[in-house]
Write a structure and sequence with these properties.
This protein has seven helices and nine strands, in the order αααβαβαββαβββαββ. It is of the alpha/beta class and 207 residues long. The chain has one domain: Rossmann fold (3-Layer(aba) Sandwich). Helix 5 links the parallel strand 2 and strand 3.
Length: 207
Amino acid sequence: MKSNANTPQEDFWAGEFGNSYISRNESDLLLASNISLFAEVFSSLDVIPSSFLELGANIGMNVRAIQKLVPDADFCGIEINQQACSILANTGCEVIESSILNAVIADQFDFVFSKGVLIHLNPDQLRPTYKKMYDWSKRFILIAEYYSPTPQGITYRGNIDRLFKRDFAGEFLDMFPEVTLRDYGFVYHRGTYPQDDITWFLLEKQR
């Protein structure tokens, strides 16, 4: 197991599977779809965030999309895969090569988010990850993942225990009752700007 991985799921993404994912995670269509997604998310905000923290930033496709919308923003990304980190650094994002649970960040950010990352964590990691997201956020938290009203494991490219669907946002709201649901939406895989049937939830901390 890699030194910065705590679980088989993290080791999976830190190693060869994570390396092979890089080439599948870069396309002009994905960038355009990400721009469309974040434009929709930001449309409900009264102020556009100026600092962002992404959990599982990979090669920066989400960072690049947000940079198109908020060019002067500051970005920080946590990423466990070494090859992805080297590409992520080219975006100008501050890179923290670490598992999410091992990451130590003293700063807070206007907007903390995960997109297609919580689904790949060991379920036992979720509550401490939610706590980190809460602590790192000044105001907004975006959870964009596969939704299921009840937890379920899904075989992922022939691998078991590597993808889990559940109500991540609902669990977050139950854990932090002072956080409110500001907006939510769904992006269909056959839409004009497709995502992989992601449901997103925009949460807001009390100020």
